[in-house]
């Protein structure tokens, strides 16, 4: 099972200073320094194989490789970059595994849909439980009449006055 990294914020001020900030041509290199990076990815393998090669990584086609790869899927330089982690099983078949975003140099893992929905459902259920608790405090049970609402003296007087007023109008 993959490690839960959605609670992590990562930043390397030293790297940003050394390379003059983030650009489309260096954002994956920056991301490769983060704990989100998979060192067994196709990107990492190509980087290792071509680091001392004049051809460099640009001449290799990641789409022809099978395995994990990272790609910048959206960018609004210099402040926003979205990176997606894919599993490629053929040149045309890829499955998204995770989405990461870098905002002003801070890298995060986006939560998956399951986490978002379960958190929202849990908070909704908690609110429903709280509403039932409030309702329970304002109700009473009698064996012969069942449940009824507790009324304060002021509420009883207001209800009786409304009933009298209704009888006068009839």
From TrEMBL:
<keyword id="KW-0010">Activator</keyword>
<dbReference type="InterPro" id="IPR038566">
    <property type="entry name" value="Mediator_Med6_sf"/>
</dbReference>
<keyword id="KW-0804">Transcription</keyword>
<dbReference type="GO" id="GO:0006357">
    <property type="term" value="P:regulation of transcription by RNA polymerase II"/>
</dbReference>
<dbReference type="GO" id="GO:0003712">
    <property type="term" value="F:transcription coregulator activity"/>
</dbReference>
<keyword id="KW-0805">Transcription regulation</keyword>
<comment type="function">
    <text>Component of the Mediator complex, a coactivator involved in the regulated transcription of nearly all RNA polymerase II-dependent genes. Mediator functions as a bridge to convey information from gene-specific regulatory proteins to the basal RNA polymerase II transcription machinery. Mediator is recruited to promoters by direct interactions with regulatory proteins and serves as a scaffold for the assembly of a functional preinitiation complex with RNA polymerase II and the general transcription factors.</text>
</comment>
<dbReference type="InterPro" id="IPR007018">
    <property type="entry name" value="Mediator_Med6"/>
</dbReference>
<dbReference type="GO" id="GO:0016592">
    <property type="term" value="C:mediator complex"/>
</dbReference>
<dbReference type="Pfam" id="PF04934">
    <property type="entry name" value="Med6"/>
</dbReference>
<comment type="similarity">
    <text>Belongs to the Mediator complex subunit 6 family.</text>
</comment>
<keyword id="KW-0539">Nucleus</keyword>
<protein>
    <recommendedName>
        <fullName>Mediator of RNA polymerase II transcription subunit 6</fullName>
    </recommendedName>
</protein>
<comment type="subunit">
    <text>Component of the Mediator complex.</text>
</comment>
């Amino acid at each position: 099972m993959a490690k839960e990294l959605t609670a992590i914020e990562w930043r390397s001020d030293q790297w940003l200073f050394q390379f003059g900030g983030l650009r489309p041509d260096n954002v994956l290199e920056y991301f490769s320094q983060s704990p989100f990076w998979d060192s067994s990815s196709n990107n990492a393998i190509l980087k290792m194989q071509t680091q001392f090669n004049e051809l460099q990584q640009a001449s290799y086609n990641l789409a022809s490789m099978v395995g994990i790869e990272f790609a910048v899927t959206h960018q609004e330089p210099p402040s926003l970059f979205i990176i997606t982690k894919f599993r490629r099983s053929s040149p045309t078949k890829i499955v998204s595994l995770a989405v990461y975003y870098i905002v002003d140099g801070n890298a995060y893992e986006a939560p998956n849909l399951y986490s978002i929905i379960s958190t929202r459902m849990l908070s909704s259920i908690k609110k429903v439980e709280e509403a039932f608790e409030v309702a329970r405090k304002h109700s009473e049970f009698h064996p012969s009449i069942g449940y009824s609402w507790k009324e304060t003296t002021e509420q009883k007087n207001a209800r009786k006055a409304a009933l009298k007023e209704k009888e006068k109008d009839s």
